[in-house]
């Protein structure tokens, strides 16, 4: 038996059942203070498995800091242990998600908006006017035969500037209706839904009262019965032009349809219109200047849109009835959607910059753009919601004090099966 084993055995004999070491003195004599004395040697020396120190399991306990720094394998093992830790992986996923979200927000939301805003400001810079040779509409006004360019709404129809007091009803309302396209049944449903009262409400159509739908003549008669105001839409203009050609031509309907087969349906409708109905549509101006409305500035109605910065009496009538987009360099409008930026974006930016102008701001209420549907921006209100194609017929109602709301009814799809 070695000395270490003997000492360990003696140590175990001196350990009582309570696990405490007792000094090897007489157990009967009182224990002096400090009976639990310090060991003569460190406790580690009494461990029996003396071969633990060279074991691989404990080797890292005796390794020095310098040894770890000098060993690439140990550093690699440390990195691997960190990377494979579950918490580390969770952090990586979270931070990668945040980075990805920031990139997507910048790439698809913030950067396009900043780029678009910069392009709009550049387009409206007066210095660009000379470079473009003058903006569209500032030089000459094209004239269209038998077309009324501009009308002023009777001021008696305007809502009061102040909202009614509590308990009182509105005295005046303007009810703007989007493209009806001959959908008389839906128009009657819409007027019932808004509780239309001819004594206190005035009805204004944004154009395209006729064509495509089942009862164009009935829509015109309803508008005439209510003494409604209107503007000329591109479909209204098309039928009126064809009617004028038919009346002034010596060709029969069959001959006309042979030369212009695509116009057959429009010619049929033009023939069905009475003189009174045609006269009503012919009296609809290209632009209706409604007048000042609380919280909206000067309100104007146009079927397609307006070129910003051009006086109402100098707007190109064909463009007003047909525009969808506008070229930012020249401000030339186009009836094609992808020939430039949407005209409403340029118009809204122009009006936002004109807040301090002495002429105030202008709000345009328009139709024509069924693909965009209901589109209520700050200075442009698009209310063609595609009724004739199974969408909705929309009424935009302005009450005393400039209170605004929209009312809609669902429509039957009268274009089903047609290209």
UniProtKB/TrEMBL annotation:
Pfam families: Metallophos. SUPFAM superfamilies: Metallo-dependent phosphatases. Coiled coil: none annotated. It comes from the Eukaryota. Residues 1-35 are annotated as: Disordered. One of its GO terms (biological process) is polyphosphate catabolic process. One of its GO terms (cellular component) is cytoplasm. The chain crosses the membrane at residues 92-111. Keywords: Membrane, Transmembrane, Transmembrane helix. Residues 173-370 form the Calcineurin-like phosphoesterase domain. GO terms for molecular function: endopolyphosphatase activity; phosphatase activity. Signal peptide: none annotated. CDD domains: MPP_PPP_family (cd00144). Gene3D superfamilies: 3.60.21.10. InterPro entries: Ap4A_hydrolase (IPR050126), Calcineurin-like_PHP (IPR004843), Metallo-depent_PP-like (IPR029052). PANTHER family: METALLOPHOSPHOESTERASE, ZINC-DEPENDENT ENDOPOLYPHOSPHATASE. This is Calcineurin-like phosphoesterase domain-containing protein. It comes from Aspergillus calidoustus.
